[in-house]
Every structure is written in C-alpha cells, then in structure tokens.
C-alpha cells in the first residue's frame, strides 16, 4: 500500500483518489476550502482523510490536482513542506478555447513548478491526457508521464501499475511541454468525433 496526498478537491482530485482507494491505497485530501476537502474525502470513502492545507503532506507521492493558473502559487505556498516528495501535477494550461496552450517550450507549468519547489522535490506531470470520466472507470488505461529523475519515474511507474495502468515514461522535465500539447490533441479528438470517453495510448 502507498500513501498518497492530493492537493485539490475537484473532479480530478476525487477521480485519482477514488481509483487509488479502490486499489488499496490510503488518500489524504488537502484544500484551501476545508469543507470541499471533507466532501471529496467522503466521496472517495473510508480510505481518505483530510489534511491541513499547507502542512507537510502525509503521502510520499503528492498529486497537485488544481487549475494551472494557481499551480505555481500553491507550490510556493507549501514550500519546504514538499521537500523530498514526488510531486505529480495534472494541469492543462489551455488557452481560452482549448485550441492551444499558454506556455512555451522550456517553460511548461511543470517546469515553472520545479523552479519554485524545493530542490529535493521530484516534480512530474501525469494524468493531463486522461479525461476524468475515463479515469473513474476502473479498467486498464495507458498513462503518459514525464519529469523528475529516473529513480522517481521508476517509483511512479510502479505506483501506476498498482492502479491497473500502463505507465508510459516520456522522459524528464524537457518532455512536459509536449505532454501539455498532447492534452490539446486529446481535446481535438474528443471534439471531432471521438467523444469525451476517448483516451490516448501507445502500442
């Protein structure tokens, strides 16, 4: 069993938490709004608890499941509380009509987060190419991820496998901007016939 913490209490946070709980992991939910954190934990079930926003997360793996616009500020707020953790951010920095991203090569949201996180924090990106309604269906699923060092990516891959997912390692932080554009690719597929039950994968 792995203990994970999730910063955020929205749809993606509850989807990740529910899938982790269903596969035997404990989940801590942390949110500025304690009532939303409690509601998310209640939705996930008995495996979930509520942590104090800004305090050191219990989990060795911490998910940042918030809107991209606030992600860097949240990590700055947590500061040294994230030292030594694996931090997986799930954001998609889409423009207003989701036809592109607002970031540039070498300056992905993940890279911006890594710049303000403690040096010992392994910052990664995952789940931004998975729709929430696909994630909650407990079926095998490919998940692209990037960032961190090789040892951290190996640890995350092992965790994803416990969730009945096939981890697809796309490399270090330099690959995270490409994953942001992969989110745009998924949106394009969904809007042009594939629907929002579509999922990206590899063979």
From TrEMBL:
One of its GO terms (molecular function) is oxidoreductase activity. SUPFAM superfamilies: NAD(P)-binding Rossmann-fold domains. Keywords: Oxidoreductase. Residues 4-93 form the Pyrroline-5-carboxylate reductase catalytic N-terminal domain. Pfam families: F420_oxidored. Gene3D superfamilies: NAD(P)-binding Rossmann-like Domain (3.40.50.720). PANTHER family: DUDULIN-RELATED, REDUCTASE. This is NADP oxidoreductase.
